Amino acid sequence: MKNSTIIKTEHLTKSFPMGKSRFTALQNITLEVNKGEFTGLIGPSGSGKTTLLNIIGSLDTPSEGEVWVLDQAVSKLNAREAAQLRKMNLGFIFQSYNLLGVHTVFENVEFPLLLLHYTATERKKMVMDALEWVGLTGKVKSKPPQLSGGECQRVAIARAMVKRPEMVLADEPTANLDAANSHNILQTMVKLNNELHTTFLFATHDEKVITYLRRKIYLLDGKIAKDETINQQTVQS
Amino acid sequence: MKTAFILAYRNLIGAGLRTWLNVIVLSFSFVVIIWMKGILAGWDHQAKTDMQNWQIGGGQYWQENYDPYDPFTLTESHAVIPETLRNEISSGNMVPVLITQGTIYPAGRMQTILIKGISPHQNLLMLPTQYLDTVTSSIPAIIGASMARANKLNKGDHITLQWRDANGTFDATDVLITHIFSTNVPAIDGGQIWIPLKKLQSMMLLSGQATVLTFRDSGKDRPKLAGWKLKPAKELTAEIDQLIKTKSIGQSVFYIILLLLALLAIFDTQVLSIFRRQKEIGTYIALGYTRREVVGLFTIEGAMHAVLAAVLSAAYGIPFLLWQANTGWTLPVEASDYGMAMAQTLYPVYSAGLVLSTILIVMLATTVVSYWPSRRIAKMNPTEALRGKIQ
Q: Which residues on B lie below 8 Å from A79 (Cβ)?
């Protein structure tokens, strides 16, 4: 594994029991993602992109093959080690935001820092910085039900970014947003990628997202169909 | 752990009405359990105190044949008061009582009673025996309110009293009710009449004799006396302990039901939470919690209902419990007919042990019912949970 390689998969296969047979969601996936990439797993529903994202995020384990995330073999991690990997190094952004509904914006963003045992002063500064990145400093006391979809997703981005993770895994982050909000969100993520050099890995089939990606890994029926790196000039910024 | 407490607190406060409904029900359990146990403790304390003040003092010597539950023993239940006790009696630290059977005829009816002779000048017991020190052509007598009610007797009434002396000779005379006293101790009230000791001794031809000797000082080491049985206060109040224990079991059923209702609400909330908050559970795991830690978080969240309930209970329960301790709980008049040593007004007594044990029991029970459904989280698939899929 090269120094700059942040994710590496080798002959990764994932299958699920389905009735009496098994459904293979991923088949013999081998790829590498380097630090600072802005990469997307692209494919239609059922192509295996979310499954791959979950395995990389140590929320699931491969049936065969291996995944290394930050030099750690995911299938060999126990529950505590996997949780530690997520807590320390990974940020997640979900299609339906997955914010804690009864917590305020501040408390939602603060959550990962609580798990990392930062002091109250450190937490406050880091949360306000993160909310500034996403332009939500005026909404600290609001609760998710009081926010628009775009604002919710920006809170989710702030929550994913607040601890400055090595990598952010975003699963269909714009699926519930309109075009304007989607662009706004993506521009925020591009900015964070440029400024903080955080690696972003998306699972998407949204054209709006695809135009921002610098590397596109196409999945079809659980296999990599195409892996292309885009010339920097052609990517939206 | 600290993080889990912070999160649990935020989740609970954020859940608003749902939390407060559970907390209110649980706090009600806290207050009622403490109040009911306090009433029992108060009753126990009051009954024992009253019994000691009115009937048994610091303990008693019983003439060896005396059995309060067997009236046939009464003819043999008397003996000469031992010479060694004369000083104690004359100094007012011991009161001899002679007991025999008799019959009264109130308004032409016949009623078998106990005649008890006691010194009018005693001040060891709260019995108002000074009313026996009355110059009258009849024998002065005092009776309890229950006895007066049952026989329709009033102060100033004359009734005929018949008895049989030590030689077996029947005799009769009139007694004058000089006072009716009110007491919470039925053993000195129902079916008995109190007259001066010397008068009864002369009526019975049992000069210098007694059935029971009540002494003041319970701490003193008492010598064994031939022909007399020593009955320490602890032994004499054992029946009250037994009675309170029986009542306590009965009342426990009531507050266990109350507690179960509160716990059911929390259990229900926990079960619902685990179904409704799948996405949240998945999110906790994605953000770095293990499933076990999420179980811990949900358990703390459930158990924290009890903490909030304790705080709420303190807010309204302390004033209520203090008010009750001062004004007491007044029972209906009929309660005095129950035949138990029960005051008209019961004053609850709260000890630190009672409050702490109640809080501990409620907290422990709440934690158990919170943990029980939360264990399910440990079997959840986080990727399914993240999608909110019910598992």
A: 290-292
**How many Cβ pairs within 8 Å bridge chains A and B?**
71
pLDDT per residue rounded down to tens, chain B (391 residues): 788 899 899 888 888 888 898 889 889 888 988 898 888 888 888 888 888 999 999 999 999 999 988 888 888 999 999 999 999 999 999 999 999 999 999 888 899 999 999 999 999 999 999 999 988 888 999 999 989 999 999 999 999 999 999 998 999 999 999 999 988 888 899 899 999 999 999 999 999 999 999 999 876 788 888 999 999 988 888 887 787 778 778 777 877 887 888 788 888 888 887 888 888 888 999 999 988 899 999 899 888 988 999 999 999 999 999 999 999 888 766 655 565 666 678 889 888 888 898 888 888 988 998 888 888 887 888 888 887 776 6
Chain B residues within 8 A of A159 when measuring between CB atoms = 287
* Contact status, residue A171 vs residue A209, Cβ threshold 8 Å: no
**Chain B residues within an 8 Å CB radius of A94:** 283, 286, 386
Rounded CA gap, B365 and B379, in Å? 24
Helix and strand numbers (H, E) in chain A are: 7, 10
Nearest to A68 by CA among A2, A130, A132: A2
Which of these CATH numbers, 3.40.50.300, 3.30.1300.10, 1.20.120.420, 1.10.490.160, describes A37-47+78-234? Answer: 3.40.50.300
Provide the ipTM. 0.90
DSSP one-letter string for B217-247:
-SSSPPPP-TTEEEEEHHHHTHHHHHHHHHH
Contact B7 A114 (CB under 8 A): yes
Sketch the domain layout of chain B as residue ranges.
2-52+239-386, 59-216
**Window B:4-23, CB contacts with A under 8 Å:** 6-7, 10-11, 13-16
